[in-house]
Amino acid sequence: MKKWLRTATMAVAAAVALSACGAAEEEAAPTGDEAPAEEATEASDFRVAMVTDVGGIDDRSFNQSAWEGLSEFGQDFGLEEGTGYRYLQSGDMADFEPNLRELVRDDVDLAWAIGFLMEDAVRTIGEQVEDTQLAIVDSVVVDADGQPYPNIANVTFKEHEGSFLVGVAAGLQTEGNKVGFIGGVEGALIKKFENGFKAGVKAVNPDAVIEVQYAESFNDEQRGAQIANTMYSQGVDVIYQAAGGTGNGVFTEAINRARNGEPVWVIGVDRDQHEEGEYGDNGESVTLTSMVKRVDRAVYLVSERTMNGDFPGGETLEYGLEDEAVGIAPSTDNMSEEALQAVVDFLNQIQAGEISVPQTDEEYEEFLSAL
Question: N or C end of the chain: which has fewer CB within 10 A?
């Protein structure tokens, strides 16, 4: 079976990275009611599929990572693409429910909903088709009484922890003492990215100014470029984007400025986005680093678990630093040794419980008051 990447606590000269680890590692301890165990399915008969959000599988971010995980799972277990594993693309939010219904009608063993925006569609179908098996990323779907559904697995991440680490990198990299955060659609999920990032910045650079703006879209490159243009023009020199496909516009704007000699940076999200920031003939990149969120790993592990008769219906699986599911990307060539060492130090403090990384605005204010 192929090797997973693991977070390495490294010497100063090495990157804080996600490098090889066995796919057989245990995922985070689940919470919630246990669903009855199902009989294992022969790999050759197992059928799994996913519905993308509007970003699509080539968004170089969230959806692409999910598809890479599903593809690796399918290939490792000898499934045929298109029948054993596949995806349905969503052009807009109106496609979510019809796409999921198509998979349910096709009687797949596991249907993935990639993104919290599909929560309502998953709830509707889960209530109507009780014998289906659904999994959603970045949301916890509950009924009117706050109870989980036994036919829905909920996969979440501690994005705030990884965002804290790239905030440390930004706070030490900025020369103008001004950094920015660009989010996709404002809500509890992306607030975790924002507040974790701001806390990391302030932990190492209390005087830094942090500009925050939401594009209210995960699929609008032009909007991303416009917001980035405004921020860079106002003196921001490092932007962390947590905006899916919208974030591609942030890279475009940064590259245009870098070609004119401006020292600006982008922090990528979900995947190692070093290549998205490359320009010039020598592989220069405006990507300072990226906050890696292992959606691919979660999709692989839950799909394998389901195939083996252990569908985690009714459970909430939360993946964080301790599970090597969030962290700094392998590409850290643009980070200083000071920043790399600081990331290691803070990573250890978070894992030791010495730092509680804020997720909400209220928790962030409490964090600031304690500095």
Answer: C
Q: Is beta strand 31-32 parallel, antiparallel or unpaired with respect to 315-319?
A: antiparallel
First to last CA, the chain: 45
For the stretch 238-292, pLDDT in tens is 999 999 889 999 999 999 999 999 999 999 998 899 999 999 888 899 999 999 9
Q: If you count them, how many residues does the chain have?
A: 371
What does DSSP say about strands 284-285 and 110-114: parallel, antiparallel, or unpaired?
A: unpaired
pTM metric for this prediction: 0.81
CA nearest neighbour of 290 among 245, 340, 330: 330
CATH 3.40.50.2300 fits 4-157+294-323, yes or no: yes
Per CATH, the homologous superfamily of domain 159-292+336-370 is Response regulator (3.40.50.2300)
Amino acid at 169: A
Nearest to 153 by CA among 19, 304, 342: 304
Give the residue extent of every domain in the chain: 4-157+294-323, 159-292+336-370
